[in-house]
Protein 1
Amino acid sequence: MNRPKDEVAALASTPVPWLASPGEHDGIVLASRIRLARNAAGWRFARRLSSAQTRDLVEQLAGAIDSVLPGRLLRIDKLSPVQRRVLIERHLISLDLAGSERASGLWLGSDGGRTAIMIGEEDHIRLQVFAPGLALERLLREAIAIDRRLESRIPWAFDERFGYLTACHSNVGTGLRASVMLHLPALATLGELKPILRGLEQLHLAVRGRFGEGSEPQGHYYQISNRRTLGLDEATIVATVTEAAQRVIEGERLARQAMLDDEQRRTQLEDRVHRAWGIISHARTLSGEELTEHLGWLRVGLSLRLPPFADSRLSWTALDHALIAGQPGHIMLTQSHAEDTVRRDRLRADLVRSWLMGGNNDVRQVH
Amino acid sequence: MNRPKDEVAALASTPVPWLASPGEHDGIVLASRIRLARNAAGWRFARRLSSAQTRDLVEQLAGAIDSVLPGRLLRIDKLSPVQRRVLIERHLISLDLAGSERASGLWLGSDGGRTAIMIGEEDHIRLQVFAPGLALERLLREAIAIDRRLESRIPWAFDERFGYLTACHSNVGTGLRASVMLHLPALATLGELKPILRGLEQLHLAVRGRFGEGSEPQGHYYQISNRRTLGLDEATIVATVTEAAQRVIEGERLARQAMLDDEQRRTQLEDRVHRAWGIISHARTLSGEELTEHLGWLRVGLSLRLPPFADSRLSWTALDHALIAGQPGHIMLTQSHAEDTVRRDRLRADLVRSWLMGGNNDVRQVH
């Protein structure tokens, strides 16, 4: 029995615990994430360990985690490429970890994936806590509580002057990365995104695509996170990212309103939303990128209650589901014969139609 | 009272008499046209005449035509650019004539525009007769009958050795151009169009876009016509073009069947048809080119009875109407405030939706 396969397939069939659109911000904020990088004292950094040592480390750390945090271990190095892809698509592991051949693990907290610990990435431990909406402060408290419990079993490599020691200097200090995933289609359409993102960079904040470092922005999803981890306390970092996110959210809200107030822009916006619905509800083959793009416009349509969504039963839950479950790895792992792109794109078109229109959610054909 | 404006506006609100899809060839043939180039004996070619002489010529020719052919004269040089555009869009005048500043006219036969005579183009007279479907032989008989009547009033410049003399050597001889307008999306999609078109060129046939010389193929519409006018009799020319058109029609039919028979191609075809419908029925702004493209796929969907058209009441008449009436000049002349592209594209989206979905033509939302 291939347990890891079963577990990842089961995971791929469940909603992610960190999406509950629209939340308090009209669907502009998707999720928040706190990540802490830690290394076990008395061990070299991961890249300096032999394969055998890495295996030992992963086993020891997994054992220690198990004793303080209910959950289960997935051995990443035992997973197929498709299974790893599913974990990336759910933001549970990094692109780096997915590509690694060495022993490595993912501890999945029994809170349904809200807490996830990468073991044997660049740092020995990368603790992540996720939540829907803008929730960095709460997540920081949760992460610190878990960190304390882990520390009771695993003494961290810590320096009085520098703070937590990490493999890359950019994480030294707090080891904290606080990220918010935002959906910014109106700012992007109005060409106001670039100056805003440049402003964020001046505040030492990083702006990345949906899948973090090395990923391209797709469907106008952006992650904002701190660059500095040293010389600032955790609360300050979280407050800075939160404040910046709030300003960007407000900018996106204003940009949406500006589009509605201008006759020509309003037409453009309505056209995008209507077309997104026309294509999603009619296409017979649909690429993952196209899906992400169209779902983005449907989110906007739903949040602004544009026709044809003014009184439709198209649900945010269905849009959230399609955004995750429509990804290539998810389709490959949950459907048979989805290995080749042609069949997968066809399956995706059929699946998305059934998710979004299933039953009959009364999205009227507007004349 | 501005009569020419009234007349062209009235024209723009009526169907063209040469579209009656699908006809006998699954909608692959749109229309046939016979054109005869003639020059009046005793006059120089148009480009050698002074402005005053041109005006005289146009008046004399119009008077002569009037005495043998019921109809009415439109003075092209008195028309606005938008009115001229409408005449181009209905294939009644050439791009050349529309751009001319000199006196020129269009004689519109009282058969509702099936017979049209350009006066003062490159040649003094360009007689055109149109019909839906593949009908070159019949049109040739009609054109010759009209030509005989004209000749009784206007002696043609004719040379025993060369035949009819024309301003451009390419028309000398019969002065005949026999054209068939074809819709070839499947051949184009399968990449089989280019070799076929090259083959036609070897048969001394020309392949052009929808609006003839100097126009780009748009929405997979192509005109096939003869290049040679000298040394062949009219019947042979018409037979050659007809035969070539029949072979291309058969090629398009086979290409459509080949797409249906191949799983992947069939998906591609269905996807195009469904998307065309999804976009046409949802877009809030629609350019003329996009309309032409999508209407083309709807034609294919209707002719192959693909879902969602298997038992819809979407009519060929509506598709024919949208193809003509959705053009920029037509919208500008029939709608107010349609001068700027933004408003026109928005109007077009609304108009097309009402033409194609008006009433409620039962195109089901297929799940």
Note: The interface with chain A takes residues 264, 267-268, 270-271, 274-275, 277-279, 281-285, 308, 342, 346, 349, 353-354, 357-358, 360, 365-367 of chain B (CB under 8 Å).
Protein 2
Amino acid sequence: MPGNQFGQLLSLTSFGESHGEAIGGILEGMPAGISIDLAFIQNELDRRKPGQSAIVSQRKEPDSINILSGIFEGKTTGTPIGFIIANEDQRSKDYSHNEDVFRPSHADYTYQAKYGMRDHRGGGRSSARETAVRVAAGAFAKILLSHYNISIHAWVNSVGAISIEKKHTELDLSQIEKNSVRCADPVIAEKMIAYIDSIRKQGDSVGGTVRCVIKNCPAGLGEPVFDRLHADLGKAMLSINAVKGFEYGSGFAGTLLKGSEHNDAFVNENEKIRTATNFSGGIQGGISNGEEIYFTVAFKPVATIMMEQDTVNASGEPAVIKGKGRHDPCVLPRAVPIVEAMSALVLADHLLRHRSSQI
Amino acid sequence: MPGNQFGQLLSLTSFGESHGEAIGGILEGMPAGISIDLAFIQNELDRRKPGQSAIVSQRKEPDSINILSGIFEGKTTGTPIGFIIANEDQRSKDYSHNEDVFRPSHADYTYQAKYGMRDHRGGGRSSARETAVRVAAGAFAKILLSHYNISIHAWVNSVGAISIEKKHTELDLSQIEKNSVRCADPVIAEKMIAYIDSIRKQGDSVGGTVRCVIKNCPAGLGEPVFDRLHADLGKAMLSINAVKGFEYGSGFAGTLLKGSEHNDAFVNENEKIRTATNFSGGIQGGISNGEEIYFTVAFKPVATIMMEQDTVNASGEPAVIKGKGRHDPCVLPRAVPIVEAMSALVLADHLLRHRSSQI
Amino acid sequence: MPGNQFGQLLSLTSFGESHGEAIGGILEGMPAGISIDLAFIQNELDRRKPGQSAIVSQRKEPDSINILSGIFEGKTTGTPIGFIIANEDQRSKDYSHNEDVFRPSHADYTYQAKYGMRDHRGGGRSSARETAVRVAAGAFAKILLSHYNISIHAWVNSVGAISIEKKHTELDLSQIEKNSVRCADPVIAEKMIAYIDSIRKQGDSVGGTVRCVIKNCPAGLGEPVFDRLHADLGKAMLSINAVKGFEYGSGFAGTLLKGSEHNDAFVNENEKIRTATNFSGGIQGGISNGEEIYFTVAFKPVATIMMEQDTVNASGEPAVIKGKGRHDPCVLPRAVPIVEAMSALVLADHLLRHRSSQI
Amino acid sequence: MPGNQFGQLLSLTSFGESHGEAIGGILEGMPAGISIDLAFIQNELDRRKPGQSAIVSQRKEPDSINILSGIFEGKTTGTPIGFIIANEDQRSKDYSHNEDVFRPSHADYTYQAKYGMRDHRGGGRSSARETAVRVAAGAFAKILLSHYNISIHAWVNSVGAISIEKKHTELDLSQIEKNSVRCADPVIAEKMIAYIDSIRKQGDSVGGTVRCVIKNCPAGLGEPVFDRLHADLGKAMLSINAVKGFEYGSGFAGTLLKGSEHNDAFVNENEKIRTATNFSGGIQGGISNGEEIYFTVAFKPVATIMMEQDTVNASGEPAVIKGKGRHDPCVLPRAVPIVEAMSALVLADHLLRHRSSQI
């Protein structure tokens, strides 16, 4: 497959460039008969869209979803859900200065190398605008998961060196949507917002991490060997623009522990087999064990900055480039719904896969 | 697909339990006419097999590969390569004490939850013995890649808190196979070996990291959006037993940098477009840019330890378990060829995918 | 996968119901840099659309394609081509009488059984309207194939008992588009048209066969074992609405021959290895041999007729149904471009697959 | 995928050449906990093996299956079932005369064209020996289907011009395994056997048809649009060696009927919705409707004959070839279990796919 499809039984195929007429997708595999709350779908898109606060890109895109099929009288029909999201505020001419120059740490050079040509308007297919399609599809997946009481919660855990210090189990997740940076700790949120604002004024950009928790996932999801639940989650996260790393459960810090410290003892809690600790991150042998699934995703600083940078043009001649247009100084606040959406697609897919294996 | 298959155009399907008659696989998609050096294939397996040094499991498995198809007169025929590796030193009775008890941080409980039953002999399908199949298939992939001069080099970068401090570009990679821990820094290697030995004597286990570099990968490999080269590498790594995290290029540390520090300026070096730095890790927009690809993989401490641990049995009653049998106190030295093999499968698959897209 | 996707490397994902807002698709895998003649794409759709002649449905659908991505400055970019085709002349109320009644030999009952609900407006997803998406995608595939000089020619070979008697090698294929029934023999075409007209006046319907020839296919396309070229062609044809059978080369008639009569002797013709006869239909062992590929597809009579028929409603009570709305008395003339489109998708996919296997 | 894999959720990957060490496969997706009767598996293989009667090839292959994984204490574990079947009576030297010559209507020339080389011993991968793997996998699928009371019955319907005249609903299917040609009509069976014997003595070969009926398939199996149940059955059949055509339900003969004759009226039979006739062949809109599924498969005469035939060698020079070795004068009797096996794989796969779509 040429790489624009995600999922086996709940499967999203995506299309669209940042500066074409529209982006969109086809979501296959939603079971029939599920009520779809369109306002919820749109709200998820609104959480990702530009212009929602002072610390993100000011591009004006309503990101209104137009669902073309697969819903009849408010319910899924079991047939594919086709949808489009128009590109309205394109301003391609903001990018005319890029036509012949490779932007550092963007995909300009690699697309040129791969395809022998590229749509230079805002990155074309490589633009993060494509993630709106994921958020729309993920919203459907969240609705499916809600039938099983599974919920997904992501938040910004760090921006540069400013990081939440509390364990995720100590956080009040209802705080996340109450601040513009989507940090689960309101005090840290203020620091992050101030820092992003200062970075924006410098014309620079900054990276950070998103943490995600999945609650009420039943034991048994995930496949042995290659399609381990965390491997599919990892691929999902690493497929998001600007992501540089993924860790789940104890993660990289777990490499510093001994087995006697790291193993999660099984205990019987009210006639339910649980683990006393959760270094496993809710997944053992690639299969969910019923505990909370949690993981962290690293995002690099945004490549587009409002400062002069050295580069070359397509002929290899030295050039200087400086960002124009409307860009995010930090992608983290808008990455939160994307992380959730990709998580939802993975979980819902594995839910359907698991069901098919039960005689 | 039920999860035992990896790759699109170069595709490995795997089978086998640790204590069944044999494990094996089918590798589809090797182009026809490639000379296969069987000694090289076997040598790769020997790098992974138990009993190769004092710091790994002493299970005696020759891991001899028996290739059943797809090779004719020393060359690939273009048809699938079926192969098996016998399980010879099984000692299933080492595991009879596990029949009714869930080993902490193993897959016993999750397999039971998923399948309603499990093969309790040494983990069955969840055992890392399965990775021998990956190493065999990866050896074929390495041969294919060698036709394009692409080479893959992994080493143990840290064991617990003992870590190489040098940048990978400063290391002498020819040192890796000269010490039993497969560390690229001989001085650090000695410390790691001594530490693993002390951990082994305690009956405990320890984790660490493997780093991997891919050299001479041409620009253009990787697909847009979901099948980004690093996303497929990440999934490949996260599908290996005991892996908890993956980062490429600047990774998690890159989240602390500003865009102005992190961006890789393009330069013209002897009429070749290159980057002045390589925070991108050789991949931009999910597509290789011709620079070195590098990434790091986190392995947790081995779950089986020779110490008493609290757990429960299948009825939820408290139990105490203590490892028996022959186990690795640290998987890192044997993980090196596995990381290389999975990298080779990803690269070779994307090489074939890229070729199919060129008119 | 949930069944709305076709092809491996050139892959079409389809969505849409007959009476929703639009139908459409995503075509992945078109190599970059191919000039796209939009007038050709639209012309292919015009060959399938209703209302094009007196012998087909009079539904008024312009079937104008709107391409939303994947084309930049007139050329493919290598990224997915998203497109939609609006449903304009829907008249859903023509179907309100069907809401609770199962139309005989339609998919009403089976969709209800599968999904527990259905979109009763004109068949919803089961409507042949969906084939417009295939024709659009097939037009792109034809453009790709034209770069390799491969051409595809289908025609109506029989309508009921009225059949072309000549061998396909004796026909003048330039006649096909010169008559409204798309028969390659103008004399037989007149008889077919008169017969379809009489059937239409009776309120009845009629079946027939389409034959297809693929010229200039190079030797080597097709995969061993399961994905034989003719197996993929057969699946492609059998996936078209109303198709009941597929045969290639000598087909069912070939079962009456002895091996000594049926074998195609190899000959050297101007330094090219060819076959003296072509009972093989251009495919041997599932792989093209360079001769003409030809096959025949059987279409049943249209299920919707303007006559009273016995049936039951969803409660199992007896009911009588009579077709309303605008229907084809014979699908064959409009099936011709669909057969070509699906053939083009199969050939182009196998062309890309073959390319990926050549080191 | 490179073409050696069949099925989505119940998935067979196959390997092996006719004259290599062994053939085999990996069957993924069998749900856990199903008791496996190994004698039944072997018996299915015995129905396909050579040497079972005077009218088939006298090659002596016990075709003993060796199951290497996926079964524990007599039950499936949910993990992949790896199995091999040794090639014991290979006599490669019977084929040494073929090394440089293309056998007419075999795959010699096309494999050479595709791969630039070939394993000339008995066809290598293109040999029908590969179908033993399908029969083994199909036997597992039959066991799965038996849990749902679904049964599959194939028989030889015609050999050359000798054909059963009765409708399949009038046949006593218990007769099939009582004669060596596997014809459901004992009187016709005698004629077929005598005819095959005379053809064998002439050194010639003959084709024919196999018919198959699937009983007790519940309504609802099959996917819309591309993966219609009959499309997947058709591909499955067309992937079998020597198959030239497939038709289901009314098939090609149905093209001669009018809609008013062909439509299957729905009736209420004992509170069950059924059809009064079954021209639909148990499938409507690509989805099973609960009636008997039936179809017919056309097999060409065997290409290998014991008569001199004109051909060319790899240099294009004229040559004469004459079959040696042990060949079937008619593949039909041995094709019966292959048709059943492929049918079972399709049905079981769609059964699992259907289950995954039910919330």
Note: Chain D has a mean pLDDT of 94.
